[in-house]
Design goal:
globular; eight-stranded mixed beta sheet
Length: 206
């Protein structure tokens, strides 16, 4: 092989190896990015169509209220009229979301539940409990209020109607959710940051 041929062969082989290594690096980067994105999507809540959704990134400037409910929890059901009234009353300042943390509740069951109780609120399935963890929720019904900066300013019961499971007052004497929304909408801290909820325990908490 002549000297010129050897130089050409070496240059061509070197260029081939560089391109090959570059393709390997790009492929690895694309795979890693896709893996990270898929993990992030898996940690988000899902709308009833199965698409990832983060309610804390929606409606900027508004207070966000997450309401954790179950279709088979009688206390959740009893609060349905009040929650809808509050979502209308505070709709200008706060965005309400129903969050279903039970992994066994299908989109079809949730749609039937929304129709039965005439809910107009957007619903999410928190199958990975990402919102449960962010909110510190333990039972249903329970609420979490995030201010416009997305700081968790209140979590716990809606009011004190229930003293314990199966034992309710004639009327609530405290109104923690309403107080938290009004305070957060004014940019101040609510009277209380947390109040223990009464209801149906969320399963599979870690």
């Amino acid at each position: 092989m002549s000297r010129r041929a050897r130089i050409f062969f070496y240059t061509d082989s070197h260029l081939f190896r560089r391109r090959f290594r570059m393709r390997i690096a790009i492929g690895a980067a694309v795979f890693f990015l896709s893996f990270i994105l898929s993990m992030d999507a898996g940690q988000q809540a899902l709308d009833l169509g199965g698409s990832p959704k983060d309610p804390l990134k929606e409606t900027p400037g508004k207070v966000v209220v997450l309401v954790f409910v179950r279709t088979d929890c009688p206390i959740s059901n009893r609060y349905a009229p009040l929650l809808q009234e509050m979502s209308v009353k505070y709709g200008g300042a706060a965005a309400f979301w129903l969050v279903f943390p039970d992994k066994n509740e299908s989109p079809e069951n949730i749609r039937s539940y929304l129709q039965e109780f005439s809910y107009k609120l957007p619903a999410l399935r928190d199958t990975e409990h990402s919102l449960v963890k962010k909110s510190g929720a333990k039972v249903t019904p329970e609420v979490a209020v995030f201010n416009s900066k997305r700081d968790l300013v209140y979590h716990g019961r809606i009011d004190d109607l229930y003293r314990e499971f199966g034992k309710a007052r004639r009327a609530a004497t405290t109104h923690e959710l309403a107080d938290a929304i009004e305070a957060a909408s004014k940019g101040v801290a609510p009277p209380s940051a947390a109040a223990e909820g009464v209801g149906c325990f969320i399963s599979d908490l870690k």
